[in-house]
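To fix ideas, we quote verbatim a fold written out as tokens:
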Amino acid sequence: ECNKLDYRWNIKAFQAGNKAFAEQMLPAYRNFISSHRFVLSSDNKLFCFGDTLSNVREAYENFPTLLFFNCTDWMKGLLNPIFAYCEDIYWVKKYPPYDIGLYPIASKQVKLEDCAVEAASNMLMMTTAIVEAEQDFGYADMHWKQLCLWADYLQERMKKMTFPSVGLLDNDDERVKCVLGLMAYHKLVQLKGNL
């Protein structure tokens, strides 16, 4: 049965991409399942935790695989703890944390650097991916205040950065991330009107 299922998914992955894409999907999916814990919060929200709780970069790296397997609930499960943490009265920054602690205790960010632009941009892009996959604005609407706050933060950062267009991709990932995050927010605004 497992071999049949693998074969079916491999064919689908090959049709969606190429051989390299197909060879990455099942191992990435299995790795995600084996390295995450699935927990229901007291208000019945799914939380997906890795060893480092709600690591934004790890969530971002898992999104393509989860999107391919149409696991939008798990995608939300990766973001739910971050939104809950940011919507708490103790989080006062204009951007999301890079992570929220080490399993099983959500207490403080483990990574010493904030990586604020990356975290804000990734959260905006991942939320947009969920809304587009579900064709429903409900999830973004629940967290609209936070999403707007993060977009404003990226907008402020962009205003402070002056750079020639030639140098945009020369070791300037932060600037590129700003642009991608703001593009995702713009897409969310469009989807809000359409959905």
Summary: The longest helix spans residues 173-194.
